[in-house]
Amino acid sequence: MKRFILGVLLGVLVFAVIGFTGCTKEKVVKVGAILRLSTGASDGLPAKRGIEIAVEEINAAGGINGKPLKVIYEDSKDSPQASVTAFEKLISMDKVKVVIGPMMSGNTLAVAPIAERDHVVVITPNGTSPKISDAGKYIYRGCTRIDRQAEALTKYAKERMGVKSVAILYSNEPYGKGCNKLFSKYFNDLGIDVVADESFMRGDRDFSAQLTKIKQKKFDLLFIPGYLQETAPAIVQARKMGINAPSMGVFGDMAPKYIELAGKAAEGHVIAGEYDPDYNTPTNKRFKEKYMDIVKSHKNEPNNIMFAAITYDMTRIVADAIKNRGYNADAIRDYLDGLKDFDGVTGRLSFDKNGDVVKQGVYIFKVEGGKYVKVE
Amino acid sequence: MFWQQALNGVVIGCVYTLVALGYTMVYGILGIINFAQGEIYMYGAYGAVITLGLTGNLTLSVLVGISLSCVVGVLLERVAFKPLRGLNPLISLISAIGASIFLSSSARFIFGPDERPFPIHFASHMYNFLGVDISDMQLIIIGASLLLITLLYVIVNHTKNGRAMKAVAMDAEAAMLMGIDVDKTYMFTFLIGSALSGVAGILMAIYYNTTYPTMGTLPGLKAFSAAVLGGVGSIPGAVVGGLTLGVAENLGAAYISSGFKDAFAFLALVLVLVIRPSGIMGSKR
Asked: For residue A58, what are the contacts with CB-CB under 8 A and spacing of at least 6?
């Protein structure tokens, strides 16, 4: 009896394998996506929505040369190991030649050597580390490098806010630490004193030890680089403790969630962002409307239009590349390198020689009356 | 600054204490470590936040939050621990870890992965005692913790159920022979431990103004350390352990480096275990 069951199982397995490999001669164009769908889903799910909106539009317009576009989503769980596993799966089982993602710099750098080896194009939607520029010729990115954000923000602090000294409270992981180092350098170059730099861990919700220390110093800007899950409660506690200096953050804070969590403490918060919801083009109006519809009908889902906007643009660019040059990594690279002024919702897009996206520049936003308002 | 930091440590230490009490009671009586204690804390917070969002009634939502914690705790005992009773304690430990992962994943599924703010804002006032600032929310946390610890002391020492708990902790078989319903006592233990964790979860949801599916992980781990630090199985030990841990991590962050705040909590644990393996208040078995 046991042997019989084993035989049946084996048979099923064989058929499954045959059935599966039989599918590779499909009539769809497959593209991979590695997003943070469980841990870190607050930006991963919006990024997925961005891709979905683009796919729906592309397929409604007849797909890519008659074949529908199909995106295969994998979860990177906020970990380089999971990203590499997902990437290996996409290139060996699904045979994709282009992957949108992984999210975050660390994960992107982890898959970069494999992408170079196997010739697969990788486009990260939110890896901001300068290291990605040199990660290889198959590695592209759809967001602005962190040093461009640093340049814009520190300049704004100096010229428009008249800041002379700054206290930094950063997230103690590669992103926050990188920001601390980089921004400190830019602040120093502009003659702004960094009077305190304290850090916190991801997952912390109690910042009273750090803030009590910071409060001893005199400064006229509180800079908190990190992720909104920590930066929002941090600013709330700072305000409760009577720290009244204006606050500044990085683009992770650009979400309605930040304002919802921080409430009144968010007022006056200055950040650099990638996407301007009021960008006045027909494409953007259409995209914004569709995204807002999704947000309305999915109440429990994280809402972050900026990440959706970036992946929306990248998906459309990828589809265009395949349509014009065929499904081949080198052909797609060639298309991306030659791209000029693509009509994206995050601006008119091109890629520079390092594979970094080029757009009009970084926007500066400020929270006013519970909303992000573009100030520059 | 020293006293200010010490006070910050006491406030967070109170929360560790409430959760640690759950760990220590379950260990003392059932001899197992319930690693899902942090998830019970999280469900308490969600119960309160969602009810408050729907009804706007604070008292009701606190009660619903605590009840949800109790329900989750008791179900946990029935589903994850009872069938494994009498087997190697390691099996219960693995079951507890599994339950913890299941509970936080199901919370992500039910409530969504996002952070939720507390639906109402508490106007916060600062009071100054001898140069130390204390907010009313901090006073509430300390007050509520003191009240609950006293209440627990009274329940354990002066009620029939409490005495049954002590008897079962000493020797479950002998207690059964004396006519104590051991099953009911186990359930009661989980009920009280879960209620305390639920209160801690709700207090933190208000204090930090956020609720999210993994909010119980780190406090759970710290509270477990606090229970071990104080001597697992001992109720005064959980109180001493919780406060020590809270103060140690805040002073470490203040005077050495804030980047290693969590490390100081665990360093304190290691030091105590090296010097006194049974914990500060633990009995030598």
From this structure: A64, A69, A315, A316, A319
Please give the mean pLDDT across all residues of chain A. 90
Cβ–Cβ of A209/B210 closer than 8 Å? no
Closest to B80 measured CA to CA, from B204, B190, B5, B1:
B190
Whether residues B113 and A172 touch (CB distance < 8 A) is answered with no
Q: Which residues of B touch A260 (CB under 8 A)?
A: 117
Amino acid identity at B250: N
ipTM of the complex: 0.71
- State the architecture of B2-113+134-275 in CATH terms: Orthogonal Bundle (1.10)
Mean pLDDT of B60-72: 96
- φ, ψ (nearest 5 deg) of residue A98: -145, 135
Q: Which residues of B touch A240 (CB under 8 A)?
A: 124, 126, 135
- Helices of type H across A61-104: 80-92
Name chain B contacts of A236, Cβ cutoff 8 Å: 208-209
One-letter amino acid of A373: V
Q: Where are the CATH 3.40.50.2300 domain residues in chain A?
A: 27-144+280-358, 147-273
Q: Which homologous superfamily is A147-273 in?
A: Response regulator (3.40.50.2300)
Domain boundaries, given as residue ranges, for chain B: 2-113+134-275
CATH class name, domain A27-144+280-358: alpha beta
DSSP B156-202: HHHSHHHHHHHHHHH-HHHHHHTT--HHHHHHHHHHHHHHHHHHHHH
Phi and psi, residue A270, nearest 5° = -110, 130
For residue A233 the two structure tokens come to: 């409660």
Please give the pLDDT value at position A22.
Answer: 45
SS3 B87: coil
Q: pLDDT tens digit string along A103-159?
A: 988 899 999 999 999 999 999 998 888 889 999 999 999 998 888 889 999 999 999
Give me A141's structure tokens: 């990115």
Cα of A198 to nearest chain B Cα, Å? 6
Residues of chain A contacting residue B124, judged by C-beta atoms under 8 Å apart: 240
**Are A242 and B4 within 8 A, CB to CB?**
no
